[in-house]
Amino acid sequence: MYNILPALVALAAGVAARTGSSIVVNTSPDPFYLWVVPDANGAPIGNRITVAAGGAWTEPLHVGRFGNSNSTSSTTGVAIKISKSIEGLYTSAPLQILGYTLAGDRVWYNLDAVNGAPFRGQRVRVTSEGSETIEWADGEDAGDVTRDNAADRDIVLVVSGKV
């Protein structure tokens, strides 16, 4: 006779509540490059991803972890770092950063830039259904704004062409 309880427990553990996705959309005429820090597998910096003009990239929201640790003491936020320069993460080029922290059933997110404004003269928007939009109408920092939403909602960053 089989005891199915262990199998049911294992199955239930594998079915997590749905989480949203981070989505980056490029409606501008030029490609850009992004890195996820840390990536979903625990690497400190994910591989460079090219987002072509008219293209998009997406991945499920995840808790930032360094290494293979599942300890809560090693969790951190996630930064999606975007540059117009192919090696921008490593050359002090201007970076647009969509940061988020996934905690329980909530996700907190914000928009920032370092080393200048990579999308100066372009509209940059972050939306998440049911939450207020973060918008940099001309690609310039519009102030420190953090939003939160249910963790099952997508966070969508759209970089548009020249305004």
UniProtKB/TrEMBL annotation:
InterPro entries for the chain: CetA-like
Keywords: Signal
Pfam families named among the record's database cross-references: Bys1
Cleavable signal peptide: 1-17
Record-given protein name: Bys1 domain-containing protein
Organism expressing this protein natively: Paraphaeosphaeria minitans
